[in-house]
Automatic annotation (TrEMBL):
Record keyword Mitochondrion present: no
Protein name: homocysteine desulfhydrase
Enzyme Commission code(s) on record: 4.4.1.2
Residues annotated with N6-(pyridoxal phosphate)lysine modification: K238
CDD domains (UniProt xref): CGS_like
GO BP annotation list: methionine biosynthetic process; transsulfuration
Catalytic activity: L-methionine + H2O = methanethiol + 2-oxobutanoate + NH4(+); L-homocysteine + H2O = 2-oxobutanoate + hydrogen sulfide + NH4(+) + H(+)
A GO cellular component annotation in the UniProt record: cytoplasm
């Protein structure tokens, strides 16, 4: 799609992302007039001439800079493929990013991005808790490459993390701040702008990057780049895919940073395939509808849980009150509370398990963000690997259940929880 020039304006006015998800970056004349983008199920692309092939490779390997108006051509599906390129263009619209890269999984996006920017001797400062796979990468893999990960509790101000770094004498070696906000499964928020300010303060010759895993609220309800982050990461397996039928990941940011990420994606081979790209293009058409319906249903469910006598505590962003320091961060950083709810039943693991085993409509499964509601037990499932003492410190108690709310009718979700709570 060398000649592609994405449009996003009507009479000079920018169109909203949801209006562009059916058309942006694609011209039907490329594909026999097909209204929908075909799956470009091909490993390689035919050059018009040897000169063209030479020019594409010069750009792919960065042997020279682009001539005026020159676009990178299609070479080979580990480097580029129309299903991925169009998807990447559409993804940039939600986060107002210059560039995007799609990966075979959220973990492929995170590992490829981190290995692009971290070097032996570097320090990575990160919020805690983070996704299990990310946690394993930080604690067990990065140290083997000479990178030291230092965690700070989500919900504590980043200034405290700075004090910790100073105490350890590591401020000079800081290369990246990685945050996951809201934190899983506690919904604790990390202040993105405060992390960006900290990165600016500690940057010297080399700029310290701020990367945000935006899987839980993005791309609809939180745009980290607008709060000073440099990179946004997603498990597209969750809300972006939205149907629990595809594994994929995304990294977004400036063209300059993404050009570097894309080099390692090509070398590691961590890109997604064309069919995954096509599935995600289909998902994007209903992204706003799905996330809005899920968010609205979650409001009803959270309100129901809050007053239930067998529920001890509900962690849901929509329940934050003005006296909570997290409230101000929420107001500034998020445009809606999303659809992840964690709650504690009165009792412990036995009571939580009784509830989970009694559910009929809500499935008992990990993962989140899909059209169907899911429930799981963080302490023994997604966060089983976290040190037991640390788990309690983070607020992941044996009585906690995590809900991902789908697009079902709120009355039915509440009816299922009502009958399951009777079993407790
Ligand atoms: C699921 C998830 C990941 C990992 O994504 P995969 O697509 O499963 O590789 C990373 N971060 C968060 C917050 C997640 O929920």
């Amino acid at each position: 799609m060398a000649e592609r020039k994405p449009e996003g304006y009507l009479n000079g006015r920018p169109l909203h992302p949801e209006s562009l998800m059916m058309s942006y970056g694609y011209r039907p004349e490329w594909s026999e007039g097909a209204a929908k983008i075909p799956i470009f199920q091909t490993s390689t692309f035919i050059f018009k001439s040897a000169e063209e092939g030479k020019a594409f490779f010069e750009l792919a390997y960065g042997l020279r800079s682009r001539r005026d108006g020159e676009q990178m051509g299609l070479i080979y599906s580990r480097l580029n493929n129309p299903d991925l390129e169009i998807l990447e263009d559409r993804l940039t619209l939600w986060d107002e990013a210059e560039a995007a890269a799609v990966f075979a999984s959220g973990m492929a996006a995170i590992t490829t991005t981190l290995l692009t920017f971290l070097r032996p001797g570097d320090v990575l400062l990160h919020s805690e808790p983070v996704y299990g796979g990310t946690d394993f990468l930080f604690k067990h893999v990065l140290p083997q490459f000479g990178v030291r990960a230092v965690g700070f509790r989500a919900g504590t101000p980043p200034e405290q993390a700075e004090l910790l770094l100073r105490r350890l004498g590591l401020t000079e070696r800081l290369a990246m701040i990685f945050i996951e906000t809201p934190a899983n499964p506690t919904n604790d928020l990390v202040d993105i702008a405060a992390c960006a300010a900290l990165a600016n303060r500690l940057s010297s010759v080399r700029r310290i990057l701020v990367a945000v895993d935006n899987t839980f609220l993005g791309p609809l309800w939180q745009q980290p780049l607008n709060h000073g982050a440099d990179l946004v990461l997603y498990s597209a397996t969750k809300y972006i895919g939205g149907h629990s039928d595809v594994i994929a990941g995304v990294c977004l940011g400036s063209r300059e940073l993404l050009d570097q990420v894309r080099v390692l994606r090509t070398i590691f081979g961590t890109m997604a395939g064309p069919h995954t790209g096509w599935l995600l293009l289909r998902s994007l058409e209903t992204l706003k509808l799905r996330m809005t319906a899920q968010m609205k249903t979650a409001r009803h469910v959270a309100a129901f849980l809050k007053t239930h006598p067998k529920v001890a505590r509900v962690r849901y962003l929509g329940n934050l009150t003005e006296d909570d320091p997290q409230y101000e961060i929420f107001q500034r950083q998020c445009s809606a509370p999303g659809s992840m709810i964690s709650f504690e039943v009165v009792g412990g693991e036995a009571e939580a398990f009784r509830l989970l085993n009694a559910l009929q409509l809500i499935h008992l499964a990990v993962s989140l963000g899909g059209t169907e509601s899911l429930a799981e037990h963080p302490a023994t499932m997604t966060h089983a690997d976290v040190d037991p003492e640390e788990r309690i410190e983070l607020g992941i108690t044996p009585a906690m259940i995590r809900l991902s709310i789908g697009v079902e009718h709120p009355e039915d979700v509440i009816a299922d929880l009502t009958q399951a709570l009777e079993a407790v």
